[in-house]
Structures are given as C-alpha cells and as structure tokens.
Amino acid sequence: MTGSLEEYAGIALAASGNGDLNEAVAALERVPAGSPGRGTLAAALLWPLLANLQVDLRTLRRLGRVLAIAEADPPDSPHWPAMRAGARVAALMADTLADRITDPHATLAELERLVAEAGTDTRFTPIFESARMGLTLMTALHDGDESAYRRLPEQFARMRANAGPGAKDVPIEAQLELIEALVAAMHARRKGTDLHEALRRAGQAAERLPADDPLRTMVMQHLGALSGDAVADSDHWTMTDQDRAMQRGFAAARMLGMGEETDPRKIETAIGHLREAVALVPPDDLNRAFHLTGLAMGLFRRSEVTNSTAGLDEAMSLLTTARELAGDADHPHWSLINELLDAVQTRLGHTSASEHPAWLDAMRGHTFHVMVQSDLAGAALAAADASQDALDFARRGLHDRDAAGAIKALDAGRGLALFAATEVGRVAARLRAAGRADLAVRWESALASGDPERLPTTLRREAFRVLAEQGMPALLDPPGLPEIRRALRDLDADVLVYLVPGDRGLPGHAVLAPADGPPSYLTLPNLRPDDDLEVEQYLTTAARRDMGPAGAGKRPDTAFAGSLDGLCRWAWRAAMGPVVEQYLPRLRTLPAGRPPRIVLVPTGKLALIPWQAARRRDGRYAIESVAVSQVVSARMLCHAAALPPVRLAPTGLIVGDPDTGGVADDLPSARVEAWAIRRTFYPGARYVGRRLDDSVSPTGPGSADEVRDWLTSSSPGAGAVLHLACHGFASTGRGTAYLLLAGGDRLAAETIGPLLARAPEREVGLVVLAGCHTGRAISGYDEAYSLGTAFLAAGVRSVLSTLWPIPDAATSVLMFMFHHFLRVERRPVWDALHRAQLWMIDPRREPPERMPAELRDELARTDPAEVAAWAGFVHWGR
Fold first, then answer.
1. Where would I find the CHAT domain in this sequence (predicted)?
2. What pTM, to 2 d.p., does this model score?
C-alpha cells in the first residue's frame, strides 16, 4: 500500500508541475484499473502534458493513453470538458501523423466539435490550430483541393504565432519555404511523381526552425519514413504498418526513377518493396489504391525495360482493383490509375485509345478535380497536368490514324477552368432536377454572396457527387462529333481546327472536325514553334514589349513590327497554307455567299500567333481567303452555340479612357474612338470616362462599379453592347487579368463569372475589349483563361479581344470600322471584324461618310495595313 501511496504522490507532484512527467505517466499506468482516484489523477496529468506538448508520435500516443484512463473515470470538474477536448484533439493529431485517418472530412468535423466544447478556454488554441492545419492538409490531399493548399501558408503563419516562445523569431522565409515544400510533397504523392526534391526542401526548411518547435519535430520525424531512406530501420516501435508501407512505396519510387530506371536489378528490388507495401496495408486502408498502383507501375516499367509482356496481366488486375477502391473521378489518384491502366492495355494490344474508356476516365478525373476548386488559381493548378496528358493521348490517336479519338482527347484537356466557370451557374438547376432542392438552395446562397469562400471545395464536391448519380460522365466528357457539327452549323462556321505543335522529334498536326463530313488531320512538319527562329524572335520581342508600361501600346515598336513579318510567313508555311490550300477545297459542302470560315483551337504557344495574318509568298494574307475565329475548346464552342442570339440595339455602355489616377498612361485616341462610336452608332448608349476635351463625362467617370452595375442591370434600356476603350492588363506570372478603370479600380477576370451568375436573366450580346492583352491567357496557354474568355464563360454571346498592345490610333480606326459593318451593314459580329480587317489592308480603302474628322486625322497619321495595327484582334463566340 505504501508503494501505491508513493506513486500517487509522485503523480500528484508531476501534475502540479514539479515532478517528472515520464515517471508520473509510467506510475499511473501501473495503478490497477478501477483504483479509486485513478481517473482524477490522469485528468490532472493532462494539463502539464498538453502545456508541454511535443508533436511527435511517441508523446502524442502517451497522452492518448492518459486520456483513455481519465475518460474511464472522469473527474467531476467544470474544467474537464475543455481539458478532454484539448486531449482529444491531440489524439487526432496522433492519428493524422500515423496516417490512420480514413475520413478526413469527418475527422475535421470532429475537431470543430471539440473546439466548440472547449468554449472560451484559450489555453488549447495552439493545439487546435496545429491540428486544424494538419487535418486541412490531409483533407486537401484527399480532395485534391488546390485552393486549400494555397490557403495553408496563412494558416501556418497563424499557428506559428501561437506556437510558443521563439516562434516569432523565425524568419518568415523558413515558414513559407517549409509549407511550400510540404504542399509540393503532397502534390507529388497524389500524382505519383518524384518526391525527393520536395522532401529535401522540407527537411532544409524544418532545420531552420527552432529546435523545440513542434512543427520541426513533426516534419523531421516523418521525413525519413516518407523519403524511403531507411527501409532497414522500419521496425522502429513508433512506426505503424501504414508508415512502413508508405516508406517502402517511396523507396521503390526513387529506385524506379519515377518510371525512367533502366537497370533490371533496381527495378526488381523496387517491385519487392512494392509487394511488401501492398501486403502491409489492410483491404480498407485509405492508401491501398495508391500502393496497388505503385506495384502496377513497377511491373509496367519492368515490361518496358525487358521488352516483354510478363507481369502485365498482374498489373491489369492490380489496377482494376485500384479502380474499384478509388470508386470514381473524385478520388485523388483516379487519373493516375487510369493513365497507367490505359498504358498497360495499349502495351498488351488490347485496344486503341479511342475504343476504351480508360484514358477518358483519366481525363474525367482531371476535369472533376478542376471543377471542385473554389477559385481560379486553384483550378489552374488542378488543370496543370491535364493539357499535357490530353496531348499525349491525342498524339497516340493520330499515330493510330484515329482523328475522332484525337479530337476527343485534345478537347478533354483544354480550358477546364473556363469550363468549370460556365457550369457554376447551372449547378442549382441540375441539383433540383436531381431532387436535391436543399443543396440547390445552399449553392444559390453561396453564389449570391459573391464570396469564393462561401462556395468551397467541400460544397462543390457534395454537389458534383449528387450529379454523378445523374450521369456525371456526360458532364465531364467533351462533346462528341455530332454535337460539334451541330454547333458549327448553328454558328455558320465550316470547320473546327485544332493546331497541335510538334514536340520531341514529332511533327505538328492540324486536326479537323468539319460541319459536314468525317474528321481528318494534316501532318504539319513545320509546325514546330520551339525550333523556329522567326517564332522565337516574335515571342522574345513580344515578351520584352509586355514588360513595358501599361500605355506602351501607343508607341511605335519597330522591333515588334519587324518580328511580325517573319512570323506571318512562318504561320502560312507551317499551318494555314496547308489548311487553306489542301484541306478546304476538299470540304464536302462549300459555303455560298461568304468566305470559308474556320474556328481555330491553337494549342500551347500557338495560342500567341495571329493566324489570320499568315501570309503567302506573294503577300496575300490568310484573311483574304478565309474568315478566322477562335474558341477555347469544343466544349466552349457548343456552349456558345447553345445560347440564343441577342439582338443588338443602339444602346449599351461605352467606356472611353477613364482617368486611372496616374496608374497608366492616357489613351487619347481611345477617347476619340469611344466618343465617335457612341455618337455614330449607339446614340442611346451611356458614355462614361473622359470626353474629347479631357472633361469627365457627366454620366460617370468609368469606374469598375459602373461596369459591374451595367453588366447586372435589369433595365430594358441598358442595352446589350459593352465597348471598353481602356487599359487591359494580363500577367501569367501572377495569374491575373483585369480592366484598369477610373481611379485605378480593377475589374478582374475571375470576378466576371460569379458577377453575371447573380443576374441569370441578363443577356449581353457583345463585349469589345479594345485594350491591351485582353485575349492573353493568364493560367497556361491551354487553359486560355483571359479577360475575353471570362466574359464568354459568363454567357456573353460574342467577344473581341487582343493578343498584344495595339497601336492606339490604329485601334481607333479599326474599331470604328468594325461597328460600321456591324451596325450599318448589319453583318454578324465575326463578319464585321473580318470585313474591318480586310478594309485595313485594302490600299483602296475609303472611310465611310460618317467617320468623324478626328478619326480621319488618326487614319492619316497611321498605316492601317501594318500587321500590328489589325491582326491582334480576335473574335470569340457567336
């Protein structure tokens, strides 16, 4: 009995902060279960254990054992609920570190319940924040939530602020470097790519944190296991079977060189590790599909290196099981599983890419992953791999002479963030049709708020899971040829043309889907922009020009103009010449009363080329033979065709060179342009911005709010035409594009869709973006998310945008002529631009009688036939 009393005394002393906690816990565990006061002593120990918490598995598991003793006989104390909540959260941290969380959403919800139980007790706030960050990271990994990844640095900084003495002395660079490296590691793990560099960076960053920092302890403890450097030491008692499986999996991945290893012995060793990993995880383990896929990858690589099909049947079986475990496109490894399955099937000769859905299933995973992101930056990150995967599938289709399969593959990976933006406004109606009016109400409420945080990935995933039961593949898949043909006919176009650049020794291609007839393709050996000096010169001078001030477009740029000359000759030789001279004459149905009209989908860097200005050796431009429009994808083509046309009246909103408060140069010619267009063609339109005498229009300065109000106006007299003669800005590095308006206010591309989604009855027929870079993609060439396409995705019927900073005076003349052909000669939008550009290059051009004297003066001071003056404008939509 005396010994028990001594142990009780030691435990009580440690609970008061004056004894050895390790000895006290050991003594507590020696006290027989059911002994009087055992639970009370355990509860008393929880506070010093929590107050001195180290985020490592051994410490957390010890705390969990003490919590279990306390919960078996809890004390009758008002402080117990908060104490229990803090300890339970620490136990959740242990499960997170041990990779034992099977449902991170449920665990995160449990965390929030425990935080609520703690009430106003702030003693456990650092623990709650640390656990919340870890679970958020795990949930983001589970969901593929790129938007959540992006928010982690903010959460990380908040957690560090509460992390105890010395934390605030750590350089912020170490904090950000660590979180970025951890996010990169999570990306690599989800996508099955190389972890080594991300883990190395994480280790270096963690070592820069204080020695007693809990995050450093947590990171350093797991880096060895994740890096796979210590398979021989994997019997350490703190490691679970899941830890050992992950360790072997990543060790094998490094041995395989991410699928590039050629040494058969290393490959065989890696396969052995992968088999052990599969054996270590139970059938219901969250990561079992990942380990099965890893083993299949090892077997596939062995097959490639040995030039044998041995092991591929097993790989097929493993991947089939992995698919079943993954379930559907919402699983983070769905695309990886199906890409590998498609590769195995192809190597076995079972099927071609167009006949089997495995590669299409892979692309469905990419599409779903993009659609559930809560912001544009997250969607762009999610789409990063989609375009290259689609291009690889398409090239394989072309190798098999399967033009239809190539078209489907190309479109499956294009403009996914933009496509997601078009679907946001339709989800509520789809949910109601699926019998989920409750979820539709939540969706509409979130959408109406205008706050992306109110429409998070969790809500998006819930909504799209419901829609999955109503035929999700139809939503995730690109349109088929019948839909493309119907859209082309509705838009009075003749052929959809994908331009695919050559790469790695392969030629380029034009893949063609006509409105009437079978799809086909042209092999284009010269369509290799990376290998052509003329293209390089153009891209270099254009990039240098882009780095100038916002008003640089009005200044002469002889280097840029000179680069266009060689570029236009290359564009004809590489692509437009074969399309115009070899393909179009073979069309089954040739148009009557108009030139052939092609709708281009240029992929990769080809999106930067002014294809309508491609020039033959004799000096004839492509635009003199064909009318050229562009589209992001067949999805967006069908989206545009499905919208009813909007009648254009002499009303609308004209924005003329608003005063940016010195942020950018004045655009006096844009002022002349806007004033002349309003006075001549849209007398009923509202004019905002500056007038010719530099005074501010009495109807408004041209602010961002004025444009927003017009876009969502329900007034019958608001009109359907928006002409923006103002600065546009696009930055691929920052992933942003915006219109620069009065006072330096911005109207950002990513806000346009949610804005118009809140006014579903509003119909805008035409938006003219006469400023610089309004057609420049900001999130990758193949995503094609720009100011112009953002308006299209939001439901605007037709858009004109620009590839580069257009010379101010020349733009004014071209824009006047565009509206002349649109309003006076009653031409469709695409034809009005086509005719205006032809007028610019016609040496016998005559200005219309109604062209004001100010614009005639502009015409006299410029050469409208220069390519830089007219070829930068592109038509999109109807």
1. 567-877
2. 0.81
